[in-house]
Amino acid sequence: MEIKCPCCKAKLTLEHIVLNQVRSDLFSLIFSQSKPMQTAIVSYLGLFRGARDLADDKALRIVQEVLSLPYLSQDTLAAALIETAEAIQAKGQLEPLKNHNYLKSVMRSVEARSVQGAQQIASPIPQKTLPQSKTMAAISGLDGLREKYK
């Protein structure tokens, strides 16, 4: 059975994918991830491709290295992968990446932003304390007495 690539229109048979163990491992590793992570990994892999196509064994090694990096959640890793790909593509960098150092720095900033956002959500917004009216002060006093004599 032949599959046609929607991007480059190249034809590839399923037999070639299944019989090639490295390619099969690569696809199974990518497709075992969530949909946003799959997209992010494929975008990130494109940064390592030079003038020639990326070899399957190198692509598998890159994906394994990326997934072995310490990260808070798959969402932060996916966001960092996409942010890295977009930043490098925006620069117009023609040289393929050689390591994951740029990704690591982006991951640190994404994780810092997510932790900072979580802290802002967790910490309540301070409310203005209004002076208590005499009626509310009396009710509070009665509540205190009721609790005392229970």
Overview of this protein structure:
There is one protein chain. Helix content is 64%, strand content 4%. It is mainly alpha-helical and 150 residues long. It has a domain at 36-122. Strands 1-2 form a two-stranded antiparallel ribbon. The radius of gyration is 27 Å and the shape is elongated. The mean pLDDT is 81.
Low-confidence stretches: none
Give the oligomer, counting copies of the same chain as homo and different chains as hetero.
single chain
Report, as a whole number of angstroms, the end-to-end distance: 79 Å
Share of β-strand residues: under 5%
Helix content: 55-70%
Order of helices and strands: EEHHHHHHH
Count of DSSP strands: 2
Fold topology:
Layout: E1 2-4, E2 11-13, H1 14-19, H2 21-31, H3 35-45, H4 56-68, H5 74-91, H6 101-122, H7 134-148
Antiparallel strand pairs: 1-2
Helix pairs in contact: 2-4, 3-5, 5-6
Compose a concise summary of this entry.
Helix content is 64%, strand content 4%. The protein is mostly helical and 150 residues long.
Which descriptors would you attach to this protein?
150 residues; mainly alpha; 2 strands; two-stranded antiparallel ribbon; 7 helices
